[in-house]
Structure formats: C-alpha cells, structure tokens
Amino acid sequence: MDEGQYYPRLVGPSRAAGGTTVLELRGELDILAVSVLSDQLDEITGTQGTDLVVDVRAVTFIDCAGLSLLSRARYRTRQRGGRLRLTGVSGGGSVARLLRMTGLTGTFEIVSDETGGDDADGAAGSAGLTDTAGTAVA
C-alpha cells in the first residue's frame, strides 16, 4: 500500500471570516490517525471559545479510534466555551455511516455544504457552509 495514500492528513487549519477555523481531514481516521493528528487537534481545540468546523468529506475510512478523535475534539472545544461542527457528513460517506451505526448522529452538530465549493487552499470555504436549518455559517 502506498503510504502517501494511507497516511492521514490534516489540511489547515484555515481561518474563515468571523473567526471560524475550518479544518479538513483526509484519508483514514484510525489508530494511526490518532497518533499522528491528536496533538495538532489538541492544540487547535485548546484555546477558549474556538469555533471549529471539521470537514470530513475526504475521509475514506473511520473506525472507533477516529470517532474517539472527533469526540475528544468536540469535548475539548465545548469545555472551553467553543463550538465544533462537522461538514461533509451529509453525503453519506464513511463518517456518516459510523455516526449512524453508533447512534451518535445527534451528538455532533452537522453543517451541510450545499455549494460544494472550496477555497483556493482546498479547505471548505465558509461562504458555502450552512447549518442544518440552512443558516449561513460565519
């Protein structure tokens, strides 16, 4: 297996208008991803009032370790008065399947990306992000 394809990647974080941080995860979110990405994600979620949107559209596989990574980020963000939202889930990919299978769909705030547009850096742009009620996300 080509390590370049398997190796989990974190793209970003990129700052969007209004102080929202958009973070794109790519590849397989498994035990390897936890060991590679957890320190970086802890740094992002370690500040007060972080508004974080995690784009999981390019995640090709997720297991319980990957779900734990996302859950920990959500917990850390909330503990510090912030907010974590997931985008790229509504397309029915691996993250959506695991959230449904574990009954955790309602635990995470899901933001849809109706325009499907990306900014120049490849991270989802905030202009196209809407919450489940259709409200634009800053």
Would you write up a description of this structure?
α2 runs parallel beside α3 (64-79). The protein is built from 4 helices and 6 strands. The model is unreliable at 115-128 and 130-138 (pLDDT under 50). The chain has 138 residues and is of the alpha/beta class. A 6-stranded mixed β-sheet has the order 1-2-3-4-5-6.
Strand fraction equals 25-35%
Structural class: alpha/beta
The end-to-end span amounts to 39 Å
* Overall outline: globular
Roughly how much helix do the residues carry, as a percent range? 25-40%
> What's the total number of strands?
6
What composes the largest sheet? 6 strands, mixed
Radius of gyration: 14 Å
Q: Counting H and I runs of at least 4 residues, what is the number of helices?
A: 4
Q: Are there runs of 5+ residues with pLDDT below 50, and where?
A: 115-128, 130-138
SSE topology sketch:
Layout: H1 3-6, E1 9-15, E2 20-29, H2 31-45, E3 51-62, H3 64-79, E4 83-87, H4 94-102, E5 109-113, E6 129-131
Parallel strand pairs: 2-3, 3-4, 4-5
Antiparallel strand pairs: 1-2, 5-6
Helix pairs in contact: 2-3
Provide tags for this entry:
32% helix
Could you provide a short overview of the structure?
This protein has 138 residues and is α/β, with parallel strands linked by helices. It is 32% helix and 30% strand.
